[in-house]
């Protein structure tokens, strides 16, 4: 289960108090003790941002993070959430990726460096002797300042890895160019904000950009809100990039067209991450009426074709729905080398061989013994028989 590090929470809350002093707020003196009065002080700004991000994004003004209450609300509320989403994705990187001694990281549209902080956290658990050079790019100079301060303060307090350095650049993402290549390029809640570009136009920009700036063994992480429009746009972007010979390492188990995108107009491929929500965030959620017990996200991990070649067996499938239990049956949606499958098991056919279906969850990889043709079909129905074996692989 994911957990926002206590050491980072302490650094974050202490930093927020420094910013909040400009508003002459009534925060408690102890940086580890946010009381209800403190949290209510910024709950209005948190609610406003939350509504703008999910319901009224067209009304979100440019430079909104220059407004101090919204700036603090973003750090207080959205940074831990986005940090944890990034950790969920980074944990799915190939093991060999973490073994190098030096990393160059490009965090595009970085905000307060939620994803870069998450990368340092994950790296510290796998390779503490590594050195990291982080390039942060965002149009907003104030949030870049917060990003730099948080990275510096946490590294100095915690000594996460051997060495880190950060370079800041305030520039429009579509105009950004660099003189070097990077081992990891991150787009965290960025692609969906390119509202002037369609999926094909985004791919036409992204393909040459990544080709120019990603090392041969580098990875690309794209993380998006688990909302219908941005996720389906990400699914379409995925299909375009595959045509340009990019390889999807996760969540997809194949390099065919997206079956869900091709066969339906109402479904979107997203996942849930279990986490231990910080206590103060639980209180904020109660104040504003949100539910973050499970984090929802859509994501892609990309690499240059052949750099991390991994072929999944034909009987492996990713579960891309919740379990749908109705009277007399259980149904799930799966995605694999055979395509998109709507799999049904009647209650009378439940057996020891297929009982794993009852514990399966969205995002799990299942191994299902089947007699399907190897032909790829975007959407079809299948029945799980009593003698059919299905088990959770991971």
Percent of residues in helical segments?
25-40%
Strand content: 25-35%
- Detail the poorly predicted runs: none
Helix/sheet category: alpha/beta
- The CATH class of the largest domain is Alpha Beta
User: What's the end-to-end separation, in Å?
Assistant: 14 Å
Report on this model:
The chain is of the alpha/beta class. The chain has two domains: 2-304, 3-Layer(aba) Sandwich (Rossmann fold); 316-392. The protein has nine helices and 16 strands. It has helices at 6-20, 36-54, 68-90, 114-124, 141-158, 199-213, 228-243, 259-263, 279-288; strands at residues 2-3, 102-108, 131-137, 163-169, 182-188, 214-224, 246-250, 271-276, 294-304, 316-319, 324-326, 329-336, 339-346, 365-368, 377-383, 390-392. Strands 1, 2, 3, 4, 5, 6, 7, 8 and 9 form a nine-stranded mixed beta sheet that branches. Strands 10, 11, 12, 13, 14, 15 and 16 form a seven-stranded mixed beta sheet that branches. α4 (114-124) links the parallel β2 (102-108) and β3. It is globular. The two termini are 14 Å apart.
């Amino acid at each position: 289960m994911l957990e926002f590090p206590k050491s980072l929470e302490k650094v974050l809350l202490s930093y927020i108090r420094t910013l909040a002093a400009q508003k002459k707020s009534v925060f408690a003196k102890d940086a580890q003790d946010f009381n209800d009065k403190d949290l209510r002080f910024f709950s209005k700004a948190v609610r406003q941002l939350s509504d703008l991000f999910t319901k009224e994004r067209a009304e979100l003004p440019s430079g909104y993070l220059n407004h101090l209450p919204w700036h603090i609300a973003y750090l207080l509320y959205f940074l831990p959430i986005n940090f944890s989403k990034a950790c969920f994705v980074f944990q799915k990187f190939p093991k060999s990726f973490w073994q190098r001694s030096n990393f160059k990281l490009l965090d595009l549209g970085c905000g307060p460096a939620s994803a870069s902080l998450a990368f340092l956290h994950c790296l510290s658990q796998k390779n503490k002797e590594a050195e990291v050079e982080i390039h942060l790019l965002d149009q907003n100079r104030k949030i870049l300042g917060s990003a730099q301060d948080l990275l510096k303060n946490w590294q100095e307090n915690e000594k996460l890895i051997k060495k880190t350095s950060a370079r800041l650049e305030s520039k429009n993402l579509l105009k950004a160019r660099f003189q070097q290549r990077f081992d990891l390029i991150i787009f965290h809640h960025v692609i969906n904000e390119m509202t002037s570009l369609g999926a094909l136009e985004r791919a036409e920009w992204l393909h040459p950009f990544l080709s120019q700036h990603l090392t041969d063994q580098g990875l690309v992480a794209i993380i998006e809100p688990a909302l219908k429009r941005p996720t389906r746009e990400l699914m379409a972007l995925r299909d375009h990039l595959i045509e340009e010979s990019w390889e999807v390492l996760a969540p997809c188990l194949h390099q065919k067209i997206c079956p869900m995108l091709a066969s339906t107009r109402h479904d979107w491929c997203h996942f849930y991450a279990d986490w231990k929500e910080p206590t103060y965030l639980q209180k904020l959620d109660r104040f504003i009426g949100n539910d973050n017990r499970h984090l929802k996200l859509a994501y892609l991990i990309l690499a240059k074709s052949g750099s991390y070649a991994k072929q999944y067996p034909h009987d492996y499938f990713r579960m891309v729905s919740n379990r749908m239990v109705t009277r007399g049956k259980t149904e799930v949606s799966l995605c694999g080398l055979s395509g998109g499958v709507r799999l049904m098991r009647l209650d009378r056919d439940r057996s020891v061989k297929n009982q794993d279906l009852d514990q399966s969850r969205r995002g799990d990889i299942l191994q299902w013994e089947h007699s399907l043709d190897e032909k790829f079909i975007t959407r079809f129905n299948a029945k799980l028989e009593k003698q059919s074996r299905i088990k959770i692989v991971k």
